[in-house]
Amino acid sequence: MIRTLIKGGACFALTLVLLGAMRVDSSAAKPNVIIIFADDLGYGDLGCYGSPIIRTPNLDRMAAEGIRFTDFYSASEVCSPSRAALLTGRYPIRSGMCGNRRVLFPNSEGGLPAAEITLAEALKEKGYATAHVGKWHLGIHEGSRPLDQGFDHSFGLPYSNDMDGRAGLPKGSSGSATPPEDGWNVPLLRDGEIIEQPAVQTTLTRRYTEEAVKFIQEKKEGPFFLYFAHTFPHVPLFASPAFKDKSRAGIFGDAVEELDWSVGQVLDSLRKEGIAENTLVFFTSDNGPWLIMGNQGGSAGPLKDGKGSTWEGGMRVPGIAWMPGRIKPAVTTMMTNAMDIYPTALALSGAEKPAGVKLDGEDLAPLLFEAKTLPERPFFYYRGDQLFACRLGEWKMHFKTQTGYGQPKPESHTPPLLFHLGRDPSEKRDVAADHPEVIARLQAAVDAHVAGVVPGKPQFE
Ligand code: MG
Fold first, then answer.
1. Which residues are near ligand 1, the ion (C-beta closer than 5 Å)?
2. Centroid of ligand 1 to alpha carbon of 436 (angstroms)
3. How far is the CA of 232 from the centre of ligand 1 (A)?
4. How far is ligand 1, taken at its centre, from the CA of residue 234, in Å?
């Protein structure tokens, strides 16, 4: 009898210990998530992506310690749709966040629909503290603003830094090497309230960074989600005095080097707080370089065209995932895209995919944490609400092409153009005539995709 009681007591104590251990484990199992999103940074603008002139030691180190993606895509060739897709895990056509006007403007009436479940909303459900720092560009009206879309805190610009231009500003001055500080009347907002107008852009990167680091320090007990969307290197370009005139690539290089410093500050703060091993950091860009800005627009490296285009340079962007101890250093050629971050973060947090919502991204956990190959899947290149191209494996097929800027109408291709991106990443040699079977396979993928798309109510008109 006594023995049974002792046994029972020991068993009870053991159960308590196990329960305690489980509790510790389950909280430790909820990693923090940080997305650092550059604006108009091209495929060729970082040292680790081959830039011979811009110094990015912090991003290079992040890439060396994490996974660097050679074939990572933004979900759109321009800003607002790309952000909508990043935060919803869905092609912008589904949320209506695309159209002829290309992006949202200060006088647009639409915005990210309240019914869309953003990553911030999904993670908040699992107890995450959430913050947005930087550019928003997903709407300024009720229902679409950061605090309406799942963020506890927000600090930054409501749209691009070249919007709200001052009357009389010389045309093209947004691409000037010395843009006027007060040339754009864009406001700086904290939690929806204007705290500065025009925003002093010279110190924006530094102030965004301070805000991001403060949030990390305050929420270090976790879990937290930080969406850090930089304003630069979108023109007009500004850099703080510590970076101005320091790079070999003019003000564009200065702005990118300051952005690199900022990434270093964020990663250092994670190391200092001892939470680097429990924080997934994803770095990428919203679209390719804005080439019509000349020296003020970045470089797509070997890729064709840039921002605004469905040629590779418009949508293939740097992509780096970092989580020391969990992610083993690697370079992957696996085709991935910004919509994958949503389901990846959801899976890490233990959240279910939202019921009844068609997601276009895939959970990257097998690739990130186990170095596994992902199943082959197609990627679709939209310009506005029009499907222009599709990639499957190394093959890319264009039905329509149009330069990012300057070509007024798209050119249709029947039969489509076909490029092998492995052998021809610059899309120079159309080999459609030699590969009708490949065309048929890509066409089948396109047909299946199109049949499953229900376009959302257009938000940009
Ligand atoms: Mg952009």
1. 39-40, 79, 286-287
2. 36
3. 9
4. 6
Query: What confidence tens digit (pLDDT) does each residue in 107-130 have?
Result: 889 999 999 999 999 999 999 999
Distance 39 CA to ligand 1 centre (A): 4
Q: How far is the CA of 402 from the centre of ligand 1 (A)?
A: 18
48 is catalytic: no
Catalytic residue among 137, 153, 230, 234: 137
What are 157-193's pLDDT values in tens digits? Answer: 999 999 988 888 887 788 888 888 889 999 999 999 9
d(CA 230, CA 260): 11
137 part of the active site: yes
Assessment of whether the complete model's pTM goes beyond 0.90: yes
Catalytic residue among 79, 98, 153, 230: 79
Q: Is the pLDDT of residue 22 over 80?
A: no
User: Quick check: 155 pLDDT over 60?
Assistant: yes
